[in-house]
Structures are given as structure tokens and as C-alpha cells.
Amino acid sequence: MGLNLHVNGESLHVETLWEGESLLYVLRERLALPGSKNACEQGECGSCSVYLDGVLVCACLVLARQAEGSEVVTVEGIADGNDLHPIQTAFVESGAVQCGFCTPGLIVAAHDLLERVPSPTDAEIREALAGNVCRCTGYEKILDAVRLAATRLSQ
Amino acid sequence: MTTAPVKAPPLELGRVGDRLVRPDGVAKVTGQFEYSSDLHAAGMLWGATLRSPHARARIRGIDTAAAVALAGVFAVLTHADVPGRKTYGMERPDQPVLAFDEVRYQGEPVAIVAADHPETARLAATLIEVDYEPLEPVVDVDWALDQASDHVHPGGNMLRQIRIRRGDPNVTAAVVVAGDYEVGMQDQAFLGPESGLAIPDGTGGVDLHVATQWLHVDHGQVIASLALPASAVRMHLSGVGGAFGGREDLSVQIHACMLALTTARPVKMVYSREESFFGHVHRHPVRMHVEHGAERDGTLVFVRAHFRFDGGAYTSSSPAVVANAASFAAGPYRMPNAHVDADMLFTNNPPCGAMRGFGAVQVAFAHEAQMDRLAAALKIDPVDLRIQNALSRGDELIIGQRVEGPAPVAEMLERLRAMPLPESVPTDPPEAYSMPGGIANVTRGEGVRRGIGYAVAMKNIAFSEGFDDYSTARVRLSVRAGSPRVEVHTAAAECGQGLLMVQEQIARTELGVDDVDVLPADTAVGSSGSTSASRQTWMTGSAVKVACEAVRDVLLGRAADELGVSVDDLRLDAGRVVATSGTSVALVDLLDVPIEATREYRHRATGRMDPETGQGNIHVAFAFAAHRVVAEVDVELGLVRVVEVATVQDVGRAINPLALEGQIQGGIAQGLGLALMEEIQVVDGLVRNASFTDYLLPTIADMPPVRMEILELAQPDGPYGANGVGEPPAIASTAAIVAALRDATGMRLTRIPVRPEHMVAGS
Asked: Given this model, what pLDDT does residue B752 score?
């Protein structure tokens, strides 16, 4: 039995899948969208953060079947065509990216934060991103990036 | 230089010293960057690994029949199928590719499977029947040290023993302090799991795309175990999701190639997070007994230490770790007398090896705690005591090696002390996020005590003890679309730290050409050595520099002929070669034939340690960093909030300040993790917390602001005066955090990570 998803504005169909596959696995291995990352696959690190019907989720914790008919937005869907989203630009410019494995999840989570709270305090940024583990940066430049993006988006 | 606020990236293309964004940044923020776990090939199979559930057991037999019979399974391989050398290892090949006779740690690979779905591969692995005879594991370093016959390996449990004997062994001191310290097992916890894709070439060879720190040392081990000529295995660096030492040893490399060659299909292997905890070595746990003696005026007289490191079941890089640790037993201080016994032991615990700081981290925790104890005993300010005894250029370490580069230890501490302290947290109204316990909202400030701690430490840069350490770079200058273009080709692994940009910056600076491509790293060019030991900016940076200089020599020779002037009268300027007379020629007009040069760079030779006294010029150079931590502890609950980490680090020359700051902040975060939360808990040889649920990493809610000051005192041999920068932030930061906790609580806190129950009075 197949699976129908709307991913980044596109209707996609998966012909066959093993029933135990997660949304993360289907995105990465069946839909050629490996941007969402497989760092812990147990909902602890946030590297696979995506929107599922507008709600920020860890794609590793969603059974692909649960997403039947849903709208999914991944990191690949955050940019506007070839134009980076201001959050993405801010991450690059602020040095918030090192190895980058956490970055896709952080981009989506930061996007979700700034959609809800356009001018967050540092405490609000920390709370919103506390579910996204980064092993390289020590987070300071991630804070810089979110502050910069918030400033630019509110202008 | 202090931390500047974020600005837009400079419009001009970057030279050495410019603040620059990463060339792979856009690919990484859009999800387009290809990590090793993202790889795909048509007809690809998935590999899985069966691992030992026992810390120690004899293998009486392996029955693969049920696994082979499962639909979708294409290969099930054991040690019998390893075509060449049955063992691997960087220094000593003592680790089985697949276990035979005996398993020596929990998680040791026993068999591998290839199947058409990862779940099928995992299921098949569980169907392999291994007949184990469990044996009593050796799990304690003291037990391991005492055993006359119960040996993890036939040669005995001593993996390596370092003895340092300096000065008068019977010297006495007016004031002596002694302490016992313990460090738990930290994990690198890089986010990108071990993974790779092996693609057979149809003629008996294979291309392996993998995340690693050192392609060539992997390559040597892979061809030995596959029994293939070097040319039959091509290795390509795939996107690396962090490393921190944990990718120096092999993981999927040989296994993926064996499965691909057996099935004649591409095979991808990706470890789960749980498997990753078993799939790489960790930072060594250690027990340390340390005694310091000093005159009444604070002058250090002696250090006596006994370190017992747990190397786990196999050698890995343990021999080098224990030598490093011993050589820094006294820290960055003048120490006329030393008696250090450093034992590295085999046990049946998880194998340990390289992690950022490489032996210096553990001993810094001890020597800095000892300096604070000594200061208390002498009634001297702890920073004053450190400054009084601070190592400086020209002084000798306890191994007798003179520090020839900058050693601004006293200056760093003075600067650190002069930096402003963070404000007290307003408690009316209380800001929950600024309190220990955070938004759990467990205190309104009562029971919260603030403490301040200082620590300073040193680290050797690049490989020591006579190792032939070099890096290779190929640089090619040609014309593309009417403009000069430089290609830089090395095998150096970009693991996230920023080496790609460093290579670009150096090529631009040396050749005056804006269009620089750093080609993908692979084994088609000579070795660049490991991305470890804070060595790549120095080593591969220097290799790129000397290769560019060779290209420039040819270029200027051509220009001299063209312009009829001496080479000495020429300089590069904005895509032209300009003579002092003012005449010039465009680069593109000199490049009908491209110019290419390949160069190897070697740092100066190092010596070996005297086996009896530990004396020797074993290290290349040294880097220093000092940290001051302000922390608050809720002494009723043992909860901690680190308020601020301040640091001063000498970097020689900041090649790219933006990336440098990221190294410092990120290293401090790993130091914070070791101080407060990160430990692989091993009981009877079995890992209890192989997950990110139970192995805690610092989050953005845990990490305080970092206040930094960067010194740029040129290293004599480093490129542009640059020194290694990656490891020093992760060394004294841990010690400084614990010092702040001691200051806040009055507790001795001799073990890291410090747990809440260690800080609650009366517990």
C-alpha cells in the first residue's frame, strides 16, 4: 500500500514501504530529501525537525503512515527557490554552522520560533532551541544568528 | 582582538586574517550538503553489524544459516571471510576486523550482513547464532594492574607505561598537598553517525565514500584487511558530521568494502546512535593520585603523580595519549622536580582513544585542582600562585623540553583577571532562566551560591614522539573563462572546523587570485595526516602555502622572461605580475600552460622519550588557554548554572577569526559537558546509557555566554605565525568550571562529571 504526502508544496507518492518506516526514513531514503538529519533517531537532538501540518516535530518519531495526506515542510522547503530564507543567511553569516549536521533542524526550529515570536528574548531563543543539540559551536553563534534573523525579518 | 558583533560577510574574497563565512555554509543551511549517511547508489544494499553482548567471552561457534536464509539477505560474513589481515589498528593492529576466538568488549563486531533494507539487515543480524562462553571481564584499572595472569591480551594488561624522573627524587617541600581525582568516560558524540558507502568497481576494486579524520591511515588498514593493492581501493571524504577524535579509528570502512566486494553491489552502512556509542573509541577514564610540594613563598618544588588510565580492550591511540598526559602532569608551570608514573591499562571496558585534548584534559583537571589546594594551604591567591610559577618562553617542561614558542601564561592570567565579571542575577523578580534549574523554577534564589574558578592548561600541537608527521598539497594555477583560477587538492578532512576556508585563504594570499577551488579530499593525492592534534591549519595550511610558493616561483619566472626583468623586481597585484618599473603582465597571459606543484610539508623532527626518565624533546609546539568561570550552585538541590566562561587564548595568528571564535566557544561547550554531565556509564564492562536520552549533552539552555580575548603571538614555525587552536578551549575550561563549583559549595569535588549529589551539603 502506497503513501501520499505533500512535501514542500509538492504532492509525492511512495509506492511501497515497510510499515515500520519513520517519516524521516521515507524523506531521506525514498523521497531523496536527506536534508533532515539522522543524528539520534529517538527525538532527543532535533536534527530531523520538520513541520507536519504546521507543527514542529521530530520526523524520526513520526511513523510515515501517520503522515498520510499531510503537509510536510523540510529544510529543503525553507528557502524561496534559489533565495535563502533570512534565517539561513543569518546562520551562514554568523558562523552558526560548523559541521552542519544539526543545522537543518535548527533552521526549521528557528523558523518556527520566529513565526510565533518575531522578536524573541534570549531566554525565549534558548527555550525554543533547547531540543536541538549542536556539538560544534557552543551555541553562541546560533544565538547570534537567530537575533540577526529576527532583526532583519522585523525590518 | 575581542569578539566583534556579527556583521555581514566582507564582499571581497578573503585573504589570511579576514573574517569569513564558510564555503559550504549555504549547502549546509539548505540541506543540500551531502554527509556520508546521505549517500545513495543505484542497486544499493544496506549493511548491519552484529555486536557482542558480552564484555568478555570465548566464541565457540558462529552459525549464520538462519540469517543467510532470510529473504532479502545478500551476504553474511564473519572473521573467516576477512580476505587479508584479520586485525586492524592505527598504532598496533590488535583489534579484530570481526571477532575470532574471543570478544573483549561489549559491542565488538562479530558478523556483518548486507540486505536490501536496513531493517532486514538488522533482523538478519539478530538471527546469527553465536555460541559464547562468557568469561569474567577485567573491568577495573587497579585490578588490571595487579593481575599476574588474568590478561585481556597475552602480553599482559600494561598497554604502555610512562615514567618521568626529573630532578631530586627525595626533595622535600615546606608545604605539600595531595589529592585523588577521577575522570569519567566522555564520548565525542559527533552528531553525524558513522557511515559510508562502498561501491565495487567490477574489477575487484572498490571506491569507499566515508566520513573520517584521516583518509590515508584508513586506507592502509583497509587494503591490508582486504588483501588488495593500494590502487584497488580509492577513498573519498564524504561530508563529515563532526569528529573530535572519534573518527580516527576505523568503523564501517573494512566492513562496507567486504560486503560490497562480496555482493558486487554498492553497500551503505549507517550506525544508529546506540550503535555509534559502541562504534568508536571514547575519552579515557582515569584515576589520578597527585602530590604537589611548594616553598612557603609559593615556589613550586615538586610534583609526584600516579595516573591509571583505562585504555579498554584494544590499543587505538592509547600509547600516545598516556605519553601526552604524563608530559603535562605539572601543567604550564615551572616544576624543577617530578616523579610521574603513568600507566595505560587494558581492560574489557570500551576501547578508548583520541578525543579533543588527548590526555591533557584529564591531567589538567588534577593539576588545576592541586594548584587551588596549594594556594589555600599557602594562603596565597590562586591566580597569584599560578602567575608566580607560570611557564614562559625558554622554560623547560618536566620532560626536559624547552618551550621555544610563546608561552604567555602569566599574561593570559593577568588579562583574564582584569576582565569584567558578569552582573549578579536579579532575584526580584527572579528570572527563572537565569537560575540553577532553569525554567523548572526550583528556586527563587535561596540556597544559590556563586563561585569563581580559574584554570590554565597547555596542549601539544601536531604529532609527537618522532612520528613522521607531514601533509601533502597539490596546487594548480590555470585559466578558466578568461580568469586565473587556483585548484587546491589535499586529502585533509574538513570535519566542520573550517579547514576548507583556511586552504582557500592561503591560496588567495599567496597567489593573489580570487577564484580558488578546494577540490574534494581523496586518496588520489598524498596524505595530509589526521584532522586531529590541532594540526591541520599548521600542517595542511603550510603544505598549501609551500605548494603555492612553488607555483608562484614558476609564474614569476615566466613573468621575468616576458617582461625582461629580474624575478626580484616582481610582485603580484590584482591578477597581474607587476615590475618595479611599472610594466606588468596579466596572469592569464602567462598561463597558456597551467602551473602545478605538489609539496609535502613536515614539521620539525621530534624525539622519543627516554624509557627510564621520560626526558626528551618529544613535542613540536605548544598552545595555551586560560579560563575563568562564574557559576551558581543551588546547594540544596545540587543544580548548577554556569553564568559565564571567560577565556584568553594565544592563537599565534587568527587566520579566520569567525571560525576561530567558533572553535573556542564549541570547545568550551565540550569542556562544560565533561564537567557537569557527560559520562558513558560502564558497569561490569557493560554500557548503561548508549543514547542521547541517557548520555546528556549541553544544550543551548546550558551553555553560558563566552567572553573571550585572543592573543596573536606568532609561532616561530606556524604558517603566518598561526598555532593550532582546536583543542585548548576544551582543556582548562572543565577544570575552571569545577573550581567555580568548589568555590561556591566548599566541597572538594574530585570526580568529573560532577553530579548534583556531590554538591549537596551532608550528602
From this structure: 98
Spatial CB neighbours of B278, under 8 Å, sequence gap ≥ 6? B51, B106, B107, B350, B687, B690
How far apart are the C-alpha atoms of A29 and A24, rounded to whole Å?
8
CB contact under 8 A, A74 and B117: no
B5 — pLDDT class (breaks 50, 70, 90) = very low
Q: What 3-state DSSP class applies to A24?
A: helix
Q: What is the ipTM of this complex?
A: 0.99
Q: Kindly give the pairing relationship between strand B584-586 and strand B576-579.
A: antiparallel
CB neighbours of residue B688 within 10 Å:
12
CA B387, distance to chain mean position in Å, is 28
The C-alpha cell that represents A154 in the structure block: 522585523
Instruction: Calculate mean pLDDT across residues B132-160.
Output: 95
CB-nearest to B6 from A28, A107, A144 is A144
DSSP B430: B
Q: Look at residue B296 and tell me whether its pLDDT is greater than 80.
A: yes
What per-residue confidence (pLDDT) applies to B10?
42
In this prediction, residue B3 carries a pLDDT of 39
Inspect the interface and report whether the beta carbons of A103 and B658 lie closer than 8 Å.
no
Express as a percent the part of chain A with pLDDT over 70: 100
Beta strand residue intervals within B337-377, DSSP E: 337-346
Interface list for A 63-102 with B (CB within 8 A): 74-76, 78-79, 84, 88, 91-95, 97-102
Pairing mode, if any, of strands B206-210 and B233-237? parallel
Q: Cβ of A152 under 8 Å from any chain B Cβ?
A: no
> Could you say which residues from 99 to 138 on chain A have a Cβ atom under 8 Å away from some Cβ of chain B?
99-104, 107, 123, 125-127, 129-138
Q: Helix and strand tally (H, E) in chain A?
A: 5, 5
Residue B66: band (very low, low, confident or very high) from pLDDT cuts 50, 70, 90:
very high
B447's CB contacts (< 8 A; 6+ apart) are B634, B635, B636, B637
> Which cell is B258 given?
567486504
Amino acid identity of residue B110, one-letter, is V
Q: Is the pLDDT of residue B654 over 90?
A: yes
A18 and B CB contact within 8 Å:
yes
pTM, full prediction: 0.97
- Residue B71, chain A, CB below 8 Å: the answer is no
| C-alpha to C-alpha distance for B448 and B707, rounded to whole angstroms | 23
For the segment B745-760, the average pLDDT, to the nearest whole number, is 96
Q: Is the peptide bond prior to B753 cis by the omega test (within 30 degrees of 0)?
A: yes
Answer whether B614's CB lies under 8 Å from B399's CB.
Answer: yes
pLDDT per residue as tens digits for the range A109-133: 999 999 999 999 999 999 999 999 9
What angle separates helix B657-676 from helix B732-745, to the nearest 10 degrees? 50
A chain contacts of residue B422, beta-carbon cutoff 8 Å: none
DSSP state of B713: -
Mean pLDDT, chain B, integer: 96
> ∠ CA B11-B17-B23 to the nearest 5 degrees?
55
